[in-house]
Design brief:
five-stranded antiparallel β-sheet, globular, 502 residues, alpha+beta, 20 strands, Rossmann fold
């Protein structure tokens, strides 16, 4: 039983539940007239809409009130006036749950028609006039685990000093992680929710894809990498609260400033990012990073090895070329590997340093008013590795989500090369530029597969808008003379590089 001492507490519980809802969910509110159902429903819908002024009329007479929200639609049903359960069938709940969520008041009027998997929130009057009591009953273990998790997040936030915090969904990356903004008065933070992932199918060598390419699970990498970057004077988010076992971390919010304006790159900001990489690469990372607040020796930074590089590149074959259920031409996988192998060996044998992995516009925050390295906030670094030093330069100079003109790309690389050369007299510019071309080609190849997979497998078609740009980037990289055999493969098998980007 949850004690709700006032209406504000009821609204906070509604926000907690709103943060776990998604398409297909049915949430039922039970309680007498005046028990708090309307307060809860209004707060939940406003939290889902991220709009404190959203009009939420009672559906008592209309039976259904629909909301086409940005993330997914929500139907608010009030069955108080329902006289027969058969009337419920006309309300179209099954259709609603195909793409959205449903909030049902007076569900007992149509209990046999509701989905078996649902969450029931029951309200009772409390001891004071504005006090209420709420109990949550989940119909299955999955629902119970979700409820326990959102309440654990509230507890973590409160213990971190964010009393009576407001929680809102925050758009994150393409990974399974979920993010929230947390605000309490003038304090605000970002909550990362990295729930344990289900076992992955084996892909190779007894390992799943995430293991093969060294994607981090949990939040130990989140904290260890961020703290290591902060120790090198970079503006990575400080850790405010942490539960490693649960996969929850509350981090400093570095702001919303971008290195892109009106859809175009701001050259000054991209060049500053190149300078940041040059600073970071003055010394490679330690293999084991300290993990504050943990009894373990630390976090082992993975090696971006040739196997991982090849497995990533093969996403191009499996998703971009073959498509779901498609078949590759016999021998194509083997010829692909033969074209890549010597190049990846070259890149891997060169200077190895920090690889933050997704060092591009979505993860770089421009902080107006700051100076030097502090001008750029760096987030989403948990998948960092030790690998080819040119990888992140390629990620920045061929930003997959922004059109980077050839001239700006050259300036970014030149800024990095110039700074590295001045700091290290032994810096091999020609070797670096060769490594840059190989890593740019590998990353573009991987991204073409990743974006296609996101569109087809994960129903996120918005990523396809970036495909023509990434094809152009791949063609640019393939124009390097040392990549001519790989360029011939792409030209023959995918029509990429034959005139594009040259």
């Amino acid at each position: 039983m949850i004690e709700l001492v006032d209406e504000a507490a009821t609204r906070r519980l509604a926000e907690d539940i709103a943060m776990l809802l998604g398409p297909g969910d049915c949430l039922c509110l039970v309680g007498g007239l005046g028990a708090g159902k309307s307060t809860f429903a209004r707060a939940l819908l406003r939290a889902l809409a991220d709009d404190d002024t959203l009009e939420v009329p009672s559906p008592t007479f209309t039976l259904v009130q629909s909301y086409e929200l940005a993330r997914f639609p929500v139907a608010h049903l009030d069955l108080y006036r329902l006289e027969d359960e058969e009337e419920f069938d006309e309300l179209g709940l099954d259709d609603v749950l195909q793409t959205g969520a449903a909030l049902v008041e007076w569900p007992e009027r149509a209990a046999s028609r509701l989905p078996a998997a649902r969450l029931v929130v029951r309200f009772e009057e409390g001891t004071a006039a504005t006090a209420r009591r709420a109990s949550l009953r989940a119909s299955d273990p999955v629902w119970r685990a979700r409820v326990e998790r959102t309440l654990a997040i509230r507890d973590l936030v409160e213990r971190a000093g964010f009393s009576h915090a407001r929680r809102r969904y925050f758009q994150g990356d393409a990974s399974p992680r979920r993010y929230e903004t947390v605000r309490s008065g003038q304090r605000h933070a970002i909550l990362m929710n990295a729930a344990p992932l289900p076992p992955q199918p084996t892909l190779r060598d007894g390992l799943g894809y995430r293991q093969l390419v060294h994607l981090a699970d949990g939040v130990d990498a989140v904290v260890a990498v961020a703290e290591a970057l902060r120790a090198r004077n970079l503006a990575a988010p400080a850790t405010l609260a942490l539960d490693i076992t649960a996969g929850l971390v509350l981090q400093e919010d570095l702001g919303r400033g971008a290195i892109v304006e009106n859809g175009s790159p701001v050259p000054e900001r991209y060049l500053a990012a190149a300078g940041l990489l040059a600073h970071l690469h003055q010394a490679p990372p330690e293999p084991v990073l300290a993990l504050p607040g943990s009894a373990t020796p630390g976090y082992l930074l993975p090696e971006f090895d040739i196997r991982a590089l090849m497995v990533e590149a093969e996403l191009f074959l499996d998703w971009y070329l073959a498509g779901p259920g498609g078949q590759l031409v016999p021998g194509l996988r083997q010829s692909f590997a033969r074209a890549w192998q010597p190049l990846l060996e070259q890149a891997a044998s060169g200077p190895r340093n920090w690889v933050l992995r997704d060092f591009h516009s979505p993860n770089l925050i421009w902080r107006k008013g700051e100076e030097g390295l502090a001008r750029l906030g760096v987030v989403d670094t948990q998948d960092a590795m030790i690998g080819p030093a040119a990888y992140d330069v390629a990620s920045l100079a061929m930003d997959a989500r922004v059109d980077i003109p050839v001239a700006l790309e050259r300036d970014i690389v030149a800024r990095y090369v110039g700074l590295r050369g001045r700091a290290d007299g032994a810096f091999d510019e020609a070797g670096f530029r060769r490594q840059y071309a190989i890593m740019a080609a590998q990353r573009a190849t991987k991204i073409l597969g990743v974006f296609t997979r996101l569109a087809v497998r994960d129903a996120k078609p918005a990523y396809l808008v970036h495909v023509p740009r990434v094809r152009d980037y791949l063609a640019r990289a393939l124009a390097h003379p040392d990549l001519h055999e790989l360029a011939d493969w792409f030209s023959a098998q995918a029509g990429i590089g034959s005139g594009e980007g040259r």
